Amino acid sequence: MQGEGNNQAHFGFRSVSESEKTRLVGEVFSSVAKRYDLMNDLMSFGLHRIWKDFAVRQSGLGKGDRALDVAAGSGDLAIRFARQVGESGEVVLTDINPDMLELGRQNMVNHGHLRNIRHVLADAENLPFEGERFDCVSISFGLRNITRKEQALKSMRRVLKPGGKLMVLEFSEPTSLQLRRIYDRYSFRVIPKIGQWVANDAPSYRYLVESIRRHPNQLSLKVMMENAGLDAVRIHNLAGGIVALHIATRYG
Ligand SMILES: C[S@@+](CC[C@H](N)C(=O)[O-])C[C@H]1O[C@@H](n2cnc3c(N)ncnc32)[C@H](O)[C@@H]1O
Q: Domain boundaries in the chain?
């Protein structure tokens, strides 16, 4: 019988043990943290900002609400949430990686006036918050890096208030074959080269491209969310399905 941590997981195209995946993903993000924001802008031609703006508009958060951004990294969503919920609201920014959490903390300082944000070092699979606490929980470009995705979805559902929304913004599957071909060429040939020039780290960006191909597509992720107990899952394709926003509600 396999013990916990000995089950297999994907690290990009490689099959590794679950504990090995967690370790390798940690190394990737510690390595890319310094150039993380710049690389996001370069690789997506700035589009990730538009996708994140769209997600926050869909959150339905109002003044005084509570939001949790999981695997928040540099805090792009948390910053937007903080403005939306105002000083009477609360935003909690979490990440498992101390280097990424520190990047988020520095970005908050640079944005000033965001006193309603707290930072917590936490594993998405086991969130250290009481149940039914948040009006909205988000995870943006984080889920595919998590070793036990189902467990993370259940953990995020647990801390959502009934009626609250879970938003998963993640790379997905282009809806047209032609776009898929162009996107494949760009991803495999260009992105690792940008990673090498800008961050001196092609392997981490090769992992990024491979991890996207391993991630469940729109419909599989919807089923996964339903299996985690989430309801009314809606899918918004962005950039022709290169990215998808899944929004679910917790009914009960
Ligand atoms: C690609 S970054 C996304 C950062 C940010 N949310 C964004 O949209 O730019 C993925 C983040 O997931 C974090 N991560 C990976 N596994 C995690 C886990 N089990 N729990 C919490 N965060 C995790 C990484 O440390 C990293 O900061």
A: 34-175+207-249
